[in-house]
Amino acid sequence: MPMSNQGIGRILGHGSAGDAVASPSPARIGPNAVIQTGQALSALYGVGAARLIFESAGLGRHLEAPPTSMVDEHEPVALFAAIRAMLPPAEADRVLAEAGYRTAHYILDHRIPPLARKILPKLHPAIASRLLVSAIARHAWTFAGSGVFRGRVMDWTKPRVRLEIVGNPLATPGCPWHGAVFQRLFGTLCGSAATARHLECCASGQNRCVTELLCTGT
After folding, report:
1. Which residues form a coiled coil (predicted)?
2. What are the pLDDT digits (tens) for 184-215?
């Protein structure tokens, strides 16, 4: 029996499209943009290097006592900038990608309802990806902050996921953090996802960041 939109919403942990939550003011970002970046830095370079970078961003307090609620978007922006300023570009990208991967892992473990984690991978990728895009859009302000998120899925045979953030406040060249988050989520819940392609980037002077993934199934 086909599920209604309300039934799908309950599985994904939200209501109907009319229940979408607006971004608060000032714009805020989920704390894992900071927490998981600290863990990635510590794992790759040690706690001392992580502390140095956090302190240079004015966020040393968060390394000692990780935030437990949403943070002002300027905090992860400053942290990402400090990483890029203090590490070679390839190493900065490595840290941000690892932080994005860890953030997605946290989301899968703590923010995706168990029933959705069980059902979505069993659905056709064209259906699973559309449901996941809908769920992400409802909570987009937690990672897009003051940016405007749009997501859509093209094609049914080989679904192509296109995710956009207009005015992305967390943009860095190539957006390895966002790319890792999206690839991990879609790869886990919607079948095997090809490496995320970053087609446009606010960090390159464009007005939006665009990431595409191909969900091909197992």
Report:
1. none
2. 999 999 977 667 899 999 999 999 999 999 88
Q: CB-based contacts of 180: which residues, under 8 Å, 6+ apart?
A: 96, 97, 98, 99, 100, 101, 103, 104, 196
What's the rounded Cα separation, in Å, for the pair 145 and 165? 10
> How many other β-carbons are positioned within 10 Å of the β-carbon of residue 122?
8
pLDDT at 22: 44
Tally of domains in the chain: 1
- pTM score of the predicted model: 0.87
The model's confidence at residue 80, banded by pLDDT at 50, 70 and 90, is: very high
Contact 80, 96 (CB under 8 A): yes
Q: Report yes or no on 71 lying in a domain.
A: yes
* In-domain check, residue 19: no
What's 84's domain CATH number?
3.90.1520.10
Determine the Cα–Cα distance for residues 122 and 126; give it in Å rounded to an integer.
Answer: 11
* Residue from 90, 101, 85 nearest 196 by CA: 101
